[in-house]
Amino acid sequence: MPQLLTISGSLRSGSSNSTLLAAAARVAPSGIEVTPYTELAALPAFNPDLEENLTAVPEAVGHWRTALAAADAVLFSSPEYAHGIPGALKNALDWVVGSGELVDKRIGLLCPSAASQFAHPQIVEVLTTMSAVVVPRATVVIDLPRRGLDADRLAKDPAVAAVLRGVILELFDPHSI
Predict the structure, then answer these.
(1) Which residue in 81, 84, 91, 79 sits closest to 43, CA to CA?
(2) What is the C-alpha to C-alpha distance for residues 80 and 155, in angstroms, rounded to an integer?
(3) Residue 49 lies in a domain
(4) Residue 70 exposed, middle or buried by CB count within 10 Å (0-12, 13-18, 19+)
(5) pLDDT tier for residue 177 given thresholds of 50, 70 and 90
(6) Number of domains in the chain
(7) pLDDT at site 51
(8) 176 lies in a domain?
(9) N or C terminus of the chain with fewer C-beta within 10 Å?
């Protein structure tokens, strides 16, 4: 069964990014297993000294790398902080630059705010530099309210559900690049 890993770039409880990803899991086509990765906060600050010594890589980093390696595709949703990628997400990506879990991995990127103009292209740039395959039609902005979102309500909204289902299908369509 194809595996989709979802990753929210926000650590905030009730995050619109996490809620959007939860809605995506609810509308995922049958036969695609969706697993949320919820441990970004557990990752220590990236340290190249630890990266070079494989026996010293922290356990949380090992779990992160294993989750990415097991996924057939990855769907991110991230806020923008101070015109940039949130630190926790950038740190997580730094931990897999050298180990290569995202090389040739199909990637989608959701953005729940049309006001986010800087982080979204920065994430695409970082992922592309890491040799991930960012699928253009799986990279969308869905402008949602910043607060009070409910995953069940989003999943029941026909327009939102259609976009989310379409994003997931694009991630697993070998002709979609």
Answers:
(1) 91
(2) 23
(3) yes
(4) exposed
(5) low
(6) 1
(7) 75
(8) no
(9) N
Residue 22 domain flag: yes
The amino acid occupying position 85 is I
State pLDDT tens for residues 88-107.
999 999 999 999 999 999 99
Q: Which of 8, 67, 9, 1 is nearest to 28 (CA)?
A: 1
Domain of 137 in residue numbering reads as 3-171
Query: Is 53's pLDDT higher than 80?
Result: no
How far are the Cα atoms of 8, 9, 81, 123 from residue 86, in angstroms, in the given order?
Answer: 10, 6, 6, 10
Exposed e or buried b per residue across 34-68, where buried means at least 16 C-beta atoms within 10 angstroms of its C-beta: bebbeebeebeebeeebbeeeeebeebbeebbebb
Query: Is residue 105 in a domain?
Result: yes
Supply the CATH number for residue 141's domain: 3.40.50.360
Q: State the sign of the Cα–Cα–Cα–Cα dihedral 145, 22, 102, 141.
A: negative
E strands, 18-173, are 33-37, 73-77, 106-111, 133-141
What pLDDT digit, counting tens, does each position of 118-168 carry? 999 999 999 999 999 999 999 999 988 777 789 999 999 999 999 999 999
d(CA 93, CA 66): 13
Q: What is the largest CA-CA distance in the chain?
A: 49
